[in-house]
Automatic annotation (TrEMBL):
It comes from Candidatus Roizmanbacteria bacterium RIFCSPHIGHO2_12_FULL_33_9. It comes from the Bacteria. This is DUF3800 domain-containing protein. Pfam families: DUF3800.
Length: 100
């Protein structure tokens, strides 16, 4: 039997006090159990290449705004290299995405 892991995240505000978001997205990523460890190793290799450690979390908001740990991306060459590495990682991941 093939075991799948489902990772879920959302984008947009889920706080009713702030009012509705223009866009609220729920995304799920299905990863087979045998591929999960391989993906973690490859993600950790990218993290170590740029930060020298693996406790970095790839948050699109921080990446896009080049904030926090991702402030290193303000340097054009590092940003281009990181984008290439991240794109290659995602292209070769072989996962299924579910977007609602």
């Amino acid at each position: 039997m093939k075991l799948l892991n489902l990772f879920v995240d959302e984008s947009g505000s889920d706080n009713p006090k702030k009012g509705p978001s223009k866009c609220y997205i729920v995304c799920g990523c299905l990863v087979s159990d045998y591929k999960r460890n391989d993906l973690k190793i490859r993600a950790d290799q990218i993290k170590f290449k740029y930060w020298g450690r693996t406790d970095i979390i790839f948050h699109s908001r921080e990446i896009g705004r080049k904030e926090g740990d991702f402030s290193i991306l303000k340097e054009k060459k590092i940003y281009q290299d990181f984008q290439n590495d991240l794109f290659n990682f995602l292209s070769l991941a072989g996962v299924q995405l579910l977007v609602f």
